[in-house]
Amino acid sequence: MEAQTANAVKISSLNPGQPLPLLIQPADGAPKDAASLRRWLDENKAFITEKITEHGAILFRGFEVDGPQQFESVAQGVDPDLKNNYLGTSPRNAVSKYVFSASELPPFYPIMQHCEMSFLPNPPRKLFFYCHIEPEINGETPIVNFRQVYKDLDPKIREEFERRGIKNVRNYNGPAAKAKFDLWKLKRWDEMFLTTDKKVVEAECAKNGLEFHWKDEDKLTLINDQEATKSHPITGEKVWYNHLQVFHEAVAAIEYGYIAKRQKNLQAHWFNFVTSAMTGIKKLTTKDGDQAMNCTFRDGSPIPVEYVKHVEEVIWKNMVIFPWRKGDVLAIDNYSTSHGRMPYKGPREIQVCWAADN
Length: 358
Ligand SMILES: [Fe+2]
What we know:
Layout: H1 2-5, E1 9-13, E2 22-26, H2 34-43, H3 45-55, E3 57-60, H4 68-78, E4 82-83, E5 100-101, E6 111-114, E7 126-133, E8 137-138, E9 143-145, H5 146-152, H6 155-164, E10 166-172, H7 189-193, H8 198-207, E11 211-215, E12 219-226, E13 229-231, E14 238-240, H9 244-247, H10 251-263, H11 266-285, E15 293-297, H12 305-317, E16 319-320, E17 329-333, E18 337-341, E19 344-345, E20 349-355
Parallel strand pairs: 2-3
Antiparallel strand pairs: 1-2, 3-17, 4-20, 5-20, 6-18, 7-17, 7-20, 8-19, 9-16, 9-18, 10-12, 10-15, 11-12, 13-14
Helix pairs in contact: 2-4, 10-11, 10-12
This protein binds fe (ii) ion.
The site of fe (ii) ion has 3 residues, from loops.
């Protein structure tokens, strides 16, 4: 490994003994600019493809990647098939042809671990993050090896998920919706599909296996079933692969419990308390199926909260959390490795792009 790359880069683990992420930095005295990194990637494509599958994530650190164009070029060096269609849940703004702000969700909101768009028939195969403005306080993008999560889950609970499958339900307001504060609010359907034409929305849903229902003229419900696990398309390994950790109504409160323990600040504790209380209130005041998002077993029966707690426990046990540095590019194998976001304070700009073969 070293002989092949010694002149341009040095390769190690970010955290000794931990396979992910693999750390690639410029070798001593070697050029650090983004164009040189791109050249090295072009010359070592097979090596990079093999390593990203093996480790699940690669962190390119110490290169002078500056701005969305250079980020896009580095990402294309890893995988040329960048895409810009997005049917996920986060509000995002485009900053170049293929690069978006990672999420416009409020800073206090955690993003739970998920493989990007896991509920679609053809999720992205790779995902890239770039640190344009380093966060001052927290705001990490933790990653988790979901192959290990599969192995670590209680086999009985895992088997039940595999047998029963998962149904995701999302409810979106439309262009006529009045702006009002909602801790769980998703973006509007016209923002997600980038059109106000319902026929275009319906065609896109059909293409992606999403059942759609228009409600009260302006509201849209999207429903889709997914398996709870998947086989990695290259290695064949089993992977925990679904959006339970994002969509289940009980998960935000559980997640805040872990974050409050980690961040140990008053804000995290306060939101832990508020989300727990609001989850309870919402459960009492919102009809099943009307939550901004929720998931059940495929037959519509509820997933026990104890199961969600177990999945969260296994995910947190395997979580790798490291601070961002300006210019970092993190390349992720979206078939095996999840990502999320820790709440933060102050400035932070992380950008994202993704590659797929559809
Ligand atoms: Fe994501």
